[in-house]
Amino acid sequence: MNTIVVVSQYIISTNIIEGVLKNLYKTLVFSKIEPALDYIYNSMPDLIIIAINMDDFFTINILNNLKKDPMFNQLPVLAVLPNQFDISRWDPTFAEDYIWETDLEREILARVNLCILRSNRVVEINPLTRLPGNISINRQIQYRLDKGEGFAFAYADLDYFKPFNDYYGFSRGDEVIKMTGRLILNIVKNKQPNNSFIGHIGGDDFIFIMDLNFIEETSQEIVDAFDKIIISTLYNPEDRIRDCIESIDRQNRVRTFPIMGISIGITNTETGTFSHYGEITERASEMKKYAKQFKGSCYRLDKRKKLFAQ
Length: 310
Known about the structure:
This protein is of the alpha/beta class. It is built from ten helices and twelve strands. It folds into two domains: about 5-120, Rossmann fold; about 135-300, Alpha-Beta Plaits (2-Layer Sandwich), CATH 3.30.70.270. It has a five-stranded parallel β-sheet, with helices on both faces. Strands 7-8-6-11-12 form a five-stranded mixed β-sheet, with helices on both faces. It has a two-stranded antiparallel sheet with strand order 9-10. β3 (about 45-50), α3 and β4 form a beta-alpha-beta unit. The chain is globular, with a radius of gyration of 22 Å. The model has no long low-confidence stretch (mean pLDDT about 90).
């Protein structure tokens, strides 16, 4: 079920929106934008509906900054405008669409459906996690390289996900992917709210980009949180006690598999001279494969240095 964040201090508007959407969407209501941001940063909703006065420059500034973040620039915003508002003053920078207060009961469902449909058609967003996909990831890396910006790049991959998926079924497998995406998004954005980036390559592969001084501590937090939250939440008690499951391997044979883990390979722009996004992603992929050689969840850091100065 799609999730919608509603920001409104007007009870009548809130009641109408909730009443119309309650059986079709999961709605979370906030009276102000600040507490809503905590949820948005941690869980990536499918749509924001916000009742706003165009003189509320504080809220408008927050929304503009949110949409400037490459993580959230494709998160659709539907603005609910007061009936007395002069539409000639409308500046659509932070919102994809608007609706009048008086039209809420009649039109809100159609507008919401349209906003989400448009968003789902954007190929850069992974439909399961709502995180940016390959096109956005590659564009983001190349943009930073072209600017000569120093950054750390991490490639995260789940260990023994396929046996888990085969054993427990696709529904629980999807939960693992969604929870992992939320976990990485939450930890990275809490550690570095600005100029960080999280992407979902597909399947059980994720990336995140941060400043060099944040990357190791963040990766360790992700490792610890994955082992604590994912394993305790999504494995049956008897499997946690045994610390393994029996599932089918790639040769269609029954085997015993360890509990899932997460492996993170990290590199950064100080380890080499990179001009193309494929070069730095390949280096991080090498480090991720190296991390997978160790038992359990872990990260491994590329400690190579440039052979010569630029």
